[in-house]
Write a structure and sequence with these properties.
Length: about 250
């Protein structure tokens, strides 16, 4: 492991999979994605005062997970498949976007969409807080995935009716940092609130975590009343969830 990981030439890249080339708004129906009509390749204002911007649907800010449970539908006995769990920009809440990467015999890696046993393409899966950047961490001791994400409580208020300190779209609430656990990355159990504020301007979001013995340690991109807005915070906050495995039920 002596290679300099800051140099591009020291990395092996998987094939690219571009959301807008694979997923088309007109093909989606029955579950409200996208929630608003958007113009592909452009951002448009959702309100007359142009303070709330709408971007086309897509995926970003990806987590890499591997399913080692041999009974999981996505398990690869060869150990060469890695699944991508990404933030889903749908204008709504509660979904993550997924894809997968398979390592080939020659060392190359192929990225593709995921198929359900029915043959249907799976792009969106249930994920609390999947509308914002989230972090998934696997705990080998209990064989559970832990999810750190933003809790949304008010995504159905019309954009023009939102208070001035709410950032951008109705689904952009980001001042409640929540924790879930799951055995399969689909069925998530609520474990608690890591941190929250009383004002939607004072963010606790875009967090990451690590296991430190029996605790979870968390870093959050945060803000207080002096922050420019909920997106552009003004400090990093540290949090500790003590005896986190005791939250499992």
């Amino acid at each position: 492991m002596s290679d300099d990981l800051t140099l591009r030439e020291n990395w092996t890249f998987a094939s690219e999979l571009v959301f807008r080339d694979e997923i088309h708004d007109d093909d989606l129906n029955y579950f409200g994605v996208p929630f608003f009509s958007a113009v592909r390749g452009e951002k448009v204002s959702l309100t007359a005062n142009t303070t709330r911007w709408l971007h086309p649907i897509g995926w970003l800010e990806t987590n890499v997970v591997q399913f080692t449970d041999k009974d999981h539908y996505f398990h690869d006995p060869a150990g060469r498949t890695f699944h991508l769990w990404a933030r889903a920009n749908t204008h709504g809440t509660g979904y993550a976007a997924i894809a997968k990467v398979v390592e080939n015999d020659d060392g190359t890696m192929t990225t593709s969409l995921v198929k359900a046993p029915s043959g249907k393409t799976m792009t969106f899966v249930p994920c609390p807080g999947g509308q914002m950047k989230f972090h998934i961490l696997f705990d080998e001791k209990q064989a559970l995935f832990w999810l750190l994400s933003s809790q949304s409580t008010d995504s159905m208020t019309r954009a023009e009716c939102l208070p001035p300190d709410r950032y951008n779209l109705p689904n952009g609430e980001r001042h409640r940092l929540q924790l879930h656990f799951s055995k399969n990355c689909i069925d998530w159990c609520f474990a608690g609130i890591v941190s929250m504020t009383s004002s939607p301007k004072e963010a606790r979001h875009y967090a990451s975590m690590a296991i430190a013995g029996d605790d979870l340690v968390v870093l959050s991109r945060s803000g207080d009343e002096r922050a420019a807005n909920a997106h552009n915070g003004n400090f990093i906050s540290f949090h500790r969830v003590r005896d986190f495995r005791g939250l499992v039920y």
